Inverse folding.
């Protein structure tokens, strides 16, 4: 048989894959346990996922101030024993140095801790997991009673929901701190006032506002929530929440007054970076 160039490349790729550690482990499992090759691959995949190696290695994504954590999957029902729950590896921003220091200086160290709680619980939620109060106490070198008190005070004061595992049953209809910040922006408040009201850093509030403007503008350009999420670099869940806020206010006077600023901010990001990401998206497979 005459070997074409694509066939030779394919054979070369297959030979090189035999040197991969995952392939080696799969063969060892297959030979030592009398499992099928398919079963051995599944075991290898689960081992990589549990120990964070191979395709599940998150070290390349870690930035200063971030940490790898194992949190309970969002799919686990409330009341299920902890030892029977599925855990997933996630990356959390434990310290965002500039923002946390800004809040600590303007308010108190307690306000900084609340900001860390809010940030990490939402990061965990967007990665398909939920943090417990025990998780937060460990991450912030605090005790559970302090974490519980911080969460209760923040939720009562700002009428928002922090997505912990204890709040799982109420996550759907709850209002988040991001929603609250964007809502106040639409209603006419500036970023400084919003930050003071929510006890958040100015940089964090500006990021929420800029992301909202980008989502709205990008959605108008691509007309697709998944593509919008990929271009802006956020979850589809967050895109849907921001679009729901837009739809709620789009026919009000407040929104019409803000529309010019929303378009200006969104347009700046679109011209500088977002449109380039759009052109780089791979086309879907034709069926």
């Amino acid at each position: 048989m005459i070997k074409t160039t694509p066939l030779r490349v394919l054979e070369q790729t297959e030979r090189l894959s035999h040197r991969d550690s995952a392939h080696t482990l799969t063969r060892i499992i297959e030979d030592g346990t009398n499992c099928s090759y398919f079963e051995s691959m599944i075991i290898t995949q689960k081992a990589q996922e549990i120990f964070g190696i191979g395709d599940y290695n998150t070290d390349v994504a870690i930035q200063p101030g971030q940490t790898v954590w194992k949190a309970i999957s969002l799919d686990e029902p409330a009341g299920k024993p902890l030892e029977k729950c599925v855990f997933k590896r996630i990356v959390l921003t434990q310290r965002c140095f500039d923002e946390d220091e800004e809040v600590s200086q303007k308010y108190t160290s307690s306000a900084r801790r609340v900001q860390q709680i809010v940030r990490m619980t939402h990061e965990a939620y967007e990665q398909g997991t939920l943090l417990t109060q025990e998780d937060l106490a460990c991450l912030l070198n605090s005790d559970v009673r302090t974490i519980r008190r911080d969460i209760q005070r923040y939720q009562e004061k700002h009428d928002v929901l922090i997505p912990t595992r204890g709040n799982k049953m109420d996550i759907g209809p709850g209002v988040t701190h991001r929603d609250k910040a964007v809502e106040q922006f639409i209603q006419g408040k500036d970023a400084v006032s919003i930050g003071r009201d929510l006890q958040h850093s100015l940089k964090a509030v500006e990021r929420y506002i800029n992301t909202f403007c980008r989502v709205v503008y990008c959605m108008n350009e691509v007309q697709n929530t998944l593509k919008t999420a990929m271009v802006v670099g956020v979850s589809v869940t967050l895109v849907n929440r921001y679009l729901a806020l837009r739809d709620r206010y789009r026919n009000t006077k407040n929104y019409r007054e803000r529309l010019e600023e929303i378009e200006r901010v969104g347009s700046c990001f679109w011209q500088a970076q977002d449109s380039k990401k759009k052109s780089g998206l791979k086309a879907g497979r034709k069926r």
The chain has two domains: 48-174, 176-278. The chain has a mean pLDDT of 81. The beta strands are 66-73, 87-93, 129-130. The radius of gyration is 23 Å.
